[in-house]
Amino acid sequence: MKIKILIGISLFIFFAFVVTVVGSGLVIKSLHQNQTPSINNGSTNTNGSKNSNQASKITLQEVAKHNTSSDCWMIISNGVYSLSSYLSAHPGGASTIISYCGQDGTIAFDSKGNSGHSSFAHSLLAQYFVGQIGQFITTQQINQTTQKIQQQVPVNNQWQEDD
Ligand code: HEM
Description:
Layout: H1 2-35, E1 55-57, H2 60-65, E2 67-68, E3 71-76, E4 79-82, H3 94-98, H4 106-111, H5 119-124, E5 129-132, E6 136-138, H6 139-151
Antiparallel strand pairs: 1-6, 2-3, 3-4, 4-5
Bound molecules: protoporphyrin IX containing FE.
């Protein structure tokens, strides 16, 4: 009889132990998943600095921060372009672009005088592309893109007509 009681107690302790271990594992796993989302709002790490692997949304507010000739982002048709390195090469002069740094230049770009820019001008945009408004992009990607763009020399600085 005593042996049966002992076996019963042992089994109970064993199952209690298994349930505790498995339960703790599941809790730890779910906590870990909550703390490491694949996309977040570019929050800061424990050092207070921005974690370069965490994605941030390209917002109007973010674009507005890049509003100088040495750091010039412009929105054209919901695409965001980093244009600092192109300013001095622009046939219409740097000043026409600088006033739109940090802003949406779609209407100005599309209307350029009466006629709008040539297809050549449109094709130039690709090399200055940062991302789409609303797109998630990591700080690391932004830095890499900006560095790459700064190293670029305009492909062709000559006036080209559409026809
Ligand atoms: C708000 C933005 C912009 C404004 C207001 C603007 C304005 C102008 C103006 C007034 C001209 C005519 C220059 C002349 O007749 O002497 C021009 C020409 C030109 N612009 Fe812009 N521009 C803008 C952005 C850009 C961008 C982002 C690019 C390319 C990345 C670009 C590429 C060109 C090119 C290639 C020409 C020569 C004509 C053509 O091919 O259409 N522009 N621009």
